[in-house]
């Protein structure tokens, strides 16, 4: 019997398949992945501290100068002069960063820019002649492109991972919008509750502190790219000659005019309606809509050609920019705030896609310069938009009509993007 039982084949009991577990929905997983890189969180936090003043300086200057001199046209002209000077000096500073490294160039350039901000503060406080305001604000032109340096670090860390670079670029754009969301609120709060010069003083302190901490993180700093053999002592060709880049920069120029005019016009609109202290919050809503859209855009897998996506984003931005013009005509501040929130939702996707185009068309050894040229175009547009917005506020019957300036700039950006589509 024992031999009979031992000879029988042994069959295993039926195995029931394990229940299938649904994959957990982790919407922030791509962002956790890029921030898990050693040193990424440290340089990101330092860069955010350095970038926050970018949303404070112009608002602080407008509130400080307009409150002291009683002219939004003068305030807009001063900020436009400073931004135009930055547009000229920015590419040179970025070229020095590409050639000598971030930490060696960013710190002295920032120190000089901070001295210019403090000079502007003193000139306003001491009621110096108007020309000193222009000279002081122009001295801030050496402010390094902190956002561009951060993007260059991501590009180096994920040089072989396009999906991670897309997520990092979206994160950086959302960080830009966060700074431009919190910056105007903080600047308005400081200038209206403490004293008019408080916004500029705090912004200068934050900028210098943030750049010092960012430059200290040498572990994630991209190495200085070796110059091609035979080019030592020769002047490298400017990225402006790269195919497709000029029409892209012109589109950035018109996009900057949207931002510059929208800021000045919104400040004047709030002042005209007796809600000056709420101006920063209204501008923050526009940045909040852009930041939220940027984070969502970073979770998507980009499809289609990059140039086509950029044209679509610019078209959406042009359409949404009509909302503030319509809302301002109603005279309702809450309606305008809601329109600014909606209008900002196309900004970050436009900037993310545009910066992707710049990175795709710029050599690695000129990446800081290429991205700074894009920022330079934006700053030039912001300068022109600020001046045009201030002129419109002072010469039109109502500040609400001045919202036609950003709407016109958006239409121009769409026209320029359509003209450059074939080159992209």
Automatic annotation (TrEMBL):
Annotated signal sequence is none
- Note whether Transmembrane helix occurs among the keywords: yes
Q: Does the keyword Transmembrane apply?
A: yes
Tell me which stretches of the chain form a coiled coil. none
Provide the alphabetized UniProt keywords.
Membrane, Transmembrane, Transmembrane helix
Membrane-spanning parts: 48-66, 72-93, 105-128, 198-216, 248-269, 275-298, 310-329, 335-358, 370-391, 397-417
Top-level division of the source organism's lineage: Bacteria
- Name the PANTHER family for this protein: MAJOR FACILITATOR SUPERFAMILY (MFS) PROFILE DOMAIN-CONTAINING PROTEIN, PTHR23542
Name recorded for this polypeptide: Transporter
């Amino acid at each position: 019997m024992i031999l009979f039982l031992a000879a029988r084949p042994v069959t295993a009991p039926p195995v029931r398949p394990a229940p299938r577990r649904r994959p957990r929905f982790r919407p922030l997983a791509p962002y956790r992945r890029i921030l898990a890189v050693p040193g990424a969180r440290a340089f990101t936090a330092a860069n955010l501290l350095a970038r926050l003043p970018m949303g404070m300086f112009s608002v602080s200057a407008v509130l400080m100068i307009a409150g002291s001199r009683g002219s939004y046209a003068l305030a807009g002209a001063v900020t436009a002069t400073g931004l135009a000077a930055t547009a000229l000096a920015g590419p040179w500073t970025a070229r020095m960063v590409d050639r000598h490294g971030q930490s060696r160039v960013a710190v002295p350039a920032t120190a000089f820019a901070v001295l210019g901000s403090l000079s502007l503060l003193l000139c306003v406080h001491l009621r110096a002649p108007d020309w000193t305001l222009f000279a002081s604000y122009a001295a801030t032109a050496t402010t390094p492109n902190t956002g561009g340096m951060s993007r260059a670090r991501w590009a180096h860390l994920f040089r072989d991972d396009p999906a991670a670079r897309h997520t990092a670029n979206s994160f950086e754009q959302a960080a830009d919008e966060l700074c431009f969301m919190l910056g105007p609120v903080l600047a308005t709060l400081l200038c209206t509750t403490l004293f008019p010069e408080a916004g500029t003083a705090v912004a200068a302190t934050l900028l210098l502190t943030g750049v010092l901490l960012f430059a200290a993180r040498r572990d994630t700093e991209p190495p200085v790219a070796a110059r091609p053999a035979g080019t030592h002592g020769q002047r490298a060709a400017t990225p402006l000659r790269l195919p497709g880049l000029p029409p892209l920069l012109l589109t950035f120029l018109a996009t900057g005019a949207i931002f510059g005019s929208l800021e000045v016009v919104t400040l004047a609109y709030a002042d005209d309606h007796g809600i000056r202290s709420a101006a920063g919050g209204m501008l923050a809503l526009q940045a909040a809509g852009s930041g939220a859209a940027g984070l969502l855009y970073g979770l998507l897998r980009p499809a289609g050609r990059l140039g086509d996506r950029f044209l679509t984003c610019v078209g959406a931005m042009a359409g949404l920019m009509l909302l503030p013009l319509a809302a301002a005509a109603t005279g309702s501040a809450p309606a305008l705030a809601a329109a600014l929130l909606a209008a900002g939702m196309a900004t970050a996707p436009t900037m993310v896609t545009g910066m992707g185009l710049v990175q795709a068309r710029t050599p690695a050894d000129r990446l800081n310069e290429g991205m700074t040229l894009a920022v330079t175009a934006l700053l030039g547009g912001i300068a022109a938009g600020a001046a045009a917005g201030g002129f419109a506020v002072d010469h039109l019957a109502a500040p609400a009509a001045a919202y036609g300036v950003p709407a016109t700039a958006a239409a121009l950006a769409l026209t320029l993007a359509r003209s450059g589509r074939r080159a992209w």
